[in-house]
Design brief:
- Keywords: Heme, Iron, Membrane, Metal-binding, Signal, Transmembrane, Transmembrane helix.
- It comes from Hymenobacter oligotrophus.
- This protein is mostly helical.
- About 55% of the residues lie in helices and about 0% in strands.
- Among the domains are: about 140 residues, Cytochrome c-like domain (Cytochrome Bc1 Complex, Chain D, domain 2); about 35 residues; about 120 residues, no CATH class.
- Helix 1 runs antiparallel to helix 10, helix 3 packs across helix 8 and helix 5 crosses helix 8.
- The structure holds heme C (6 copies).
Length: about 450
């Protein structure tokens, strides 16, 4: 009997506590992926795993991997396969809508909503009238995106929650979309909750058993002094607190937490993501670019033509505001600036350090990238904030993943041929063309 000890029980309790803490961390990370209006871009990138070439017929592999890159370059900041991000989860979309509809939608969703297409209007309203940007993608490119979506959605890990039970006749049901989106996350949570309940039941049972055993042993007469001492022993918390292993564990945990936080802090130096200064005039992009659908380039006139996108001068405002709301105190501020012949003192939101070279025309006009890809849902912003991280890693990642638009450009014909011969099937990305060379972005 002398081998019966209660002390391991308290050790076990501590281990249990640590398990709970770890479980809590995982749950917290789950929640942290959702932030204001959008979603942390890093999280969405993670949510769209690598190409599904393996699980598809060989003929489709190239289309799927091209679709993978296109999806990550254009769609991933708003869409994931199984999760609602800014827009709906795309799993099972090919059953909800036919391909020709999807192609039209991606190329110009606002036109479809305006035309009164029943499904388009419904989904638009469901997502708080957030407009999905238009994409200058070819039919073929869009087809490859949905081939990729389909391949991702049918991967075994997702199949359990992705759902073969989805209406085969393609009923456009909002619930279906939501269910598929939240499915994967919920599944993990359910497993965690079940585990926690099991652990609690185990603890309670063990305490009861320990008590019963102690009572039984107390009733026995044939125990010697040491055994009695062992049975009556109380858990000595002071001894535990003073013990070397306890101090060691707490010390190590403390050092690890401090180290982790410092590294996170250091990484964030110079990061301005989410920066949203207040502006001298309550100018709203939501009102102008969103509700009144004024084209971005009406105000940012040089964005398709030159390196920098200009901020409009007060004269551009006056094209409309010489008439509209002329008596509003906010509009009077524009008049005052013009009378004094001084520019409006807008506070700059986006600002790369001088060591980096970024050219708008190269991305918007030549590359055909939508403003929203980098600046987020500007047309929904009352006050502009910095949506992307604007770090070097952010630039480079996109250059690695985005295929270069080489169609109809004779300059690229030979290059692409050489590239394709050397890299069977891998898309000709911006980086294949040298877009990750230091001197391209650094003076
Ligand atoms: C800036 C955010 C954003 C980007 C980028 C974006 N979408 Fe969307 N998408 C949305 C929103 C929001 C909706 C919901 C409808 C609406 O509000 O217009 C949507 C809806 C959809 C739908 C209909 C989904 C359904 O369940 O019926 C499809 C399909 C779709 N998007 C495909 C794409 C593809 C493909 C891309 C990339 C080429 C893309 N989207 C890029 C925001 C975005
Ligand atoms: C009616 C004129 C007007 C239209 C249309 C407009 N903008 Fe602006 N934009 C402004 C003004 C004025 C500012 C400076 C004040 C501010 O930051 O809100 C600005 C600022 C911005 C900034 C932040 C610049 C900085 O300081 O870093 C971005 C990004 C931007 N606009 C993008 C867009 C996009 C994308 C669209 C189209 C969806 C758009 N704008 C449409 C007038 C306009
Ligand atoms: C193409 C026309 C157009 C241009 C250009 C334009 N606006 Fe507007 N603006 C509007 C319209 C339309 C409204 C909404 C008026 C209403 O709500 O009745 C508006 C409303 C506003 C309001 C809200 C006024 C209030 O008191 O409700 C402000 C502030 C404003 N604009 C500032 C600006 C500034 C600053 C510029 C220049 C960078 C600008 N606008 C350029 C059309 C324009
Ligand atoms: C590939 C990413 C990308 C795209 C696409 C993009 N921008 Fe930008 N934008 C940036 C970066 C990066 C900056 C900061 C530039 C700097 O500080 O030199 C910026 C800055 C701006 C500014 C502040 C003025 C300036 O030039 O620094 C405005 C306004 C702006 N963008 C508007 C737009 C509009 C409108 C569009 C779409 C027609 C657009 N951007 C498309 C990345 C992008
Ligand atoms: C959303 C994707 C995306 C992001 C983000 C992006 N780029 Fe690009 N970039 C492109 C594409 C696409 C091209 C190719 C345009 C073309 O020539 O067709 C390009 C081309 C370039 C080029 C010319 C490369 C060459 O080979 O001539 C430079 C320089 C560049 N980008 C700088 C930057 C910098 C700096 C940033 C970050 C501040 C950035 N880019 C962020 C997509 C992106
Ligand atoms: C696609 C564009 C691009 C390419 C290619 C690129 N950089 Fe950068 N780099 C940037 C941008 C943008 C920044 C500023 C990022 C910031 O402020 O966080 C930057 C910042 C830096 C910095 C300063 C870091 C800091 O914290 O201030 C160094 C050093 C640097 N880059 C070195 C390099 C080297 C070496 C290469 C080649 C291997 C390279 N870069 C290639 C875009 C690029």
């Amino acid at each position: 009997m002398s081998s019966f000890r209660l002390r391991p029980f308290s050790h076990w309790l501590l281990a249990l506590f640590l398990t709970f803490t770890a479980v809590g961390q995982v749950a917290a990370q789950d929640n942290a992926t959702v932030s204001k209006e959008g979603v942390t871009p890093g999280a969405t990138a993670g949510a769209a795993p690598a190409a599904a070439a393996g699980s598809a017929p060989a003929g489709d592999a190239a289309a799927i991997s091209a679709g993978d890159a296109l999806f990550k370059g254009n769609c991933a900041q708003c869409h994931a396969i199984n999760d609602v991000v800014v827009g709906p989860a795309l799993a099972g979309i090919e059953q909800r809508r036919p391909l020709p509809w999807l192609i039209k939608w991606v190329q110009n969703s606002s036109k479809m909503v305006a035309s009164g297409d029943e499904y388009a209007v419904k989904i638009f309203n469901e997502y708080q009238k957030q407009q999905m940007p238009n994409f200058a993608l070819s039919d073929e490119e869009i087809t490859s995106i949905f081939a990729y979506v389909k391949a991702e959605a049918s991967k075994p890990a997702n199949a359990a929650v992705g759902g073969d039970d989805r209406g085969a006749e393609g009923k456009p049901s909002g619930e279906v979309a939501d269910g598929a989106g939240a499915g994967a996350g919920k599944y993990v949570n359910v497993v965690l909750i079940v585990l926690i309940v099991v652990l609690i039941v185990l603890v309670v049972t063990l305490v009861i058993i320990a008590n019963i055993m102690r009572d039984v042993l107390r009733g026995r007469k044939d125990l010697d002094g040491r055994d009695v001492e062992m049975i009556d022993q109380k858990t000595d918390w002071m001894a535990i607190l003073k013990s070397g292993w306890f101090k060691g564990t707490v010390g190590t945990l403390f050092v690890l937490v401090v180290l982790y936080e410092s590294i996170q802090g250091l990484m964030a130096i110079g990061l301005q993501q989410g920066y949203q200064p207040s502006q001298p005039i309550a100018f709203s992009h939501k009102l102008h670019a969103g509700e009144h659908q004024i084209n971005c380039a009406y105000c940012h006139t040089s964005v398709y033509k030159s390196k920098s996108a200009n901020i409009p001068s007060a004269n551009i405002c006056m094209n409309c505001h010489s008439q509209i709301k002329a008596t509003s105190p906010e509009i009077k501020k524009i008049y005052r600036a013009i009378q004094r012949n001084q520019p409006i003192q807008w506070v700059r939101v986006h600002n790369l350090p001088d060591l980096a070279y970024f050219n708008h025309a190269q991305h918007t006009q030549v590359g055909g990238i939508e403003c929203q890809t980098c600046h987020g849902p500007i047309q929904n912003m009352e006050v502009v904030y910095q949506y992307s991280a604007l770090t070097m890693g952010w630039c480079i990642n996109c250059h690695r993943e985005t295929p270069l638009n080489t169609k109809g450009n004779g300059y690229y014909d030979n290059l692409v041929k050489l590239h394709d011969n050397a890299n069977a099937g891998a898309p000709f990305t911006v980086s294949s063309n040298g877009g990750t060379e230091c001197s391209k972005c650094h003076y």
